[in-house]
Design goal:
Elements: H1 3-9, H2 12-25, H3 38-47, H4 52-64, H5 97-105, H6 108-121, H7 129-150, H8 159-178, H9 183-208
Helix pairs in contact: 2-7, 2-8, 2-9, 3-4, 6-7, 7-8, 8-9
Biased composition (Low complexity): 68-84
Region (Disordered): 67-107
Amino acid sequence: MSLVDLIARADERGLAASGLACLDRCVPLLGGDDEVLRPLWSSLADGGADGDAWGERLAKARAELDCADPSADPSADTVPGLGPDPAPGSGSGAETETEAETEAAVSDEDRAAALARRMLATAPGDPCASALRAWADACSAAALQIHRLLDVAADGDGPLVAAERRRQVAVLELLAGRGAGGLRPALEVSTEGRRVLRAVVSRRARGRS
């Protein structure tokens, strides 16, 4: 089954886990501790994303990761469901020289980090199925774009993107097949992906130094 179909058929727990897993794998871009989102995983195990615990733990994660309003970030790319494109010069009819220089100075790492911040900032605090589905779909697209930005492949989707797509499918299949019992292996899949992305981020940082 395709990734799109899996998201379309997922229940609320599966949708929340899918979006959370995408975000969890991108935590290295936010400078956060590997365990910063673990309380949100626990809330899914305790009863899904429909209780007060989810909203409270989401607010705490945003505070710990200093997640600002994503619409104010000039480095963010456009991903449907994650807010409007704040492209420099939009709405003014012309791009100033300063804005053009700012846009040119934005690195792929900056764009990737901005997308990760949007994923966290737009997570529904009081979620319903429709809100979770929109968020999971947007997180899927954002996570793939993040890996695309950081992939060494010059054209098309390289190995980093392909691996991220496989992990997204694996998480959704685990939740669809096992329900709450799929959360632990889904977390393990996400942890593996986070380690891979952390290594990529570290390698790119060393290359710039």
